[in-house]
Amino acid sequence: MATTTRPKPKTVFPKIISTLWLLFLSGLAVFILYIYAVSVNFLNLFGDLPNMRTLENPKSALSSVLYSADNKELGKYFRENRTPIEFSDLPENFVHALMATEDIRFEEHSGIDPEAMARVAGSLMIGSSKGGGSTITQQLAKNLFRTRGEELNNGYLNDKPGFRTLIHKTKEWIMAVKLEQSYTKQEIMTMYLNIFEFGSNAFGLQSASKTFFGKDAKDLEVQESAVLVGLFKNPNFYSPKFNSDNSKHRRNVVLSQMVKYGYMTQAEFDNLKNTDIALKYRVENQNVGLAPYFRTEASKFLLKWCRENGYDLYADGLKIYTTIDSRMQQYAEQAVEEHMKDRQKEFFSHWKGRNPWIDRQGKEIPNYLQTAIKRTDRYRNLNRQFDGNQDSINFYLNKKIPMTIFTYDGEKEVQMSPLDSLKHYKHYLQTGFMAMEPQTGHIKAWVGGINYKHFKYDHVKQGARQPGSVFKPFLYTAAIENGYYPCYETLDTQVCIPLGDGTMWCPNNADNKFSGEKFTLRKAMAQSVNSISAFLVNKLGAETLVKTARRMGITTPLEANPSLALGVNDVTLYDMVGAYGTYVNSGTWIEPNFITRIEDKHGNVLHEFVPKTVDALSEETAYMMVHMLKAAAEPGGTAYYGLRHRNGLKNEIGGKTGTTQNYSDAWFMGITPDLVAGAWVGGDDRSIHFRTIALGQGNKLAMPIYGNFMQKVYADKSLERSKDPFPKPSTPLSVELDCAKYNNGMPVDSSQQDEFYQVPAPIDLDAF
């Protein structure tokens, strides 16, 4: 019997392997084709990718920084508050905390972490969303190139369900790989930390460190680094300011990850895990920090410069170096606050039970608030909203709402109507103060008001007010240039000057009396005798006074009218300080300036600024005016007691007080050999003021700010401000300044009594 051999059954295993391998290769090919299709935006299905130029020069908005002359940061200009940091300035503990929490294999992968992606894929297969697969490089790509923004997601499939997230992730993979090919690991981490938004308007690690902990990033302690690393998961939910419990929990998660990967011991973790988060929270904006009025005024100049030179102040990371000295600025702000707080208490007491807005007869101005509120943004917005319907507008103007108001005892949360809020703020006196180095024109301190957050109007350069007697030195300057001199004597008698309209101008003295006594010009200016100013303007002509003031830097409109001699035309404090600097600077007017140079983000100098100068006066005239101004701080002068006794200033000082009609404006201008300063105090409106000269005059309201400031400046030895006498002219004077050396006194102008009209006339209080 024949035997048959039974064939062995064929195994299906090789076929399965072959099929799987074929499927894998096919899937890989499809995946590669898909990646390629996304990278070239095939048929516009996926939307664009950033071009190579963008990749090679990734740009994020950088804050421009304003620096003081002593290299302190004064503030920033930004849309996004971002200050770049170098990798060398990153604290090691922060780098370790970030890697341990966000991307432990950061140093090993090439932009995509296969292990993390496999973990995420496995989690998704079992229906879990635990764990994330994005590397630091992928997160950088997402944030740097806005891969999820509308600009790069304009393809056909982007709006189809299920495709959008996949396309986003794919673009981030592609860009992450390209980033890894273009940059080092250190550069990638530095870019990521410079662009991330940490919340509270803090973009980048340096800004976040300043905002939350009040320190540079390089000084962060490990627990502080852990708090900031915790924000990468969700800046709002884990905010240490607004969700402290969540933040503390997340901080401890970060610290435990550092233990897990050997960056911290268990004992160190146990020592830190129960500690509270110690914040020094401050959101950077224009309302806080030194010199807010100055920073705002500087921005006007800088925006113009940027427009003309092709830069963006809020995004290009410019470095702007100013003339402001942070120490002097601090002393100026302190002097203003200390003085104005006391004067405000006095003002409240003075007007207790009454409103301070009064007319020339001392009567309250009817409907003052109703008129004033029409000048506010709130009224204009309501007017637009209700198409001018006055009933609706008045309803909301009188409706109480929650608001934060300013007081010298700190901000207060109140329920108050907009009309009552306006009434509250109109009761406050305002001020302006500026100090300048006369030889350079460098502005060293600038205080534009009592509180920038609540009173934005700047009283240094933006506002102009009547200067009163601080304008008189320009008249005396013109007199000296025209042959008069400090010891020249005149009589204190009423002077009436005919005007073009047939009327007479007959100014009165401050005490409404005329002594008939002889006054040297020096004494007359020191005691601010109006009759002698009238004598001089009549002799010289108002046009001469206008020309002199213009040469010395006064830019506001001036009318060639005799009353100009008593300071009736508005001027700015900015111009006045610059003009007085001419006396100290040997007759050369130098334009007040506050920017010395601008650099780009790399430190390359873009522009250095040279101030304008004018040879306004002769050296002799300038020195004689310094001699004249010194009389105010000598016995009998209006500044003597305040500066010498109250403030204890013993060095040579020149000065001039000024008080205008009804005490609406109080001024003081002070000069020393290396510093010129001015102060103004008054109400927002001219109708708001004290009712007596004892309370409203310049040496009471304005001069103490100057005296307090100078006291603080001289006490700070690091400022090295001179107490030496004013330097003598380079050539001998043509006249004698010691009036006692003239034999038998000085002759009085014999034409004085004959030329002036001694007729009764109403006193023009506008000229006071």
Describe this structure in words.
Residues 72-258 form the Glycosyl transferase family domain. The protein is of the alpha+beta class and 768 residues long. It folds into three domains: 81-273, Biosynthetic peptidoglycan transglycosylase-like (Penicillin binding protein transpeptidase fold, Orthogonal Bundle), CATH 1.10.3810; 367-427, no CATH class; 431-719, DD-peptidase/beta-lactamase superfamily (Beta-lactamase), CATH 3.40.710.10. Strand 15 (595-599) and strand 16 (605-608) form a beta hairpin. Helix 3 (92-102) packs across helix 10 (244-260) and helix 18 crosses helix 20 (530-540). The longest helix has 28 residues, at 13-40. The chain starts with 12 loop residues before the first helix and ends in a 13-residue tail after the last helix.
Q: Number of DSSP helices? A: 28
Low-confidence stretches: 124-129, 750-768
Instruction: Please tell me what the overall shape is.
Output: elongated
Q: pLDDT average, as an integer?
A: 87
Largest sheet descriptor: 5 strands, mixed
The CATH superfamily title of the largest domain: DD-peptidase/beta-lactamase superfamily
- First-to-last CA distance: 149 Å
CATH architecture classification name of the largest domain = 3-Layer(aba) Sandwich
Strand order of the largest sheet: 2-1-5-15-16
Strand-residue proportion: 5-15%
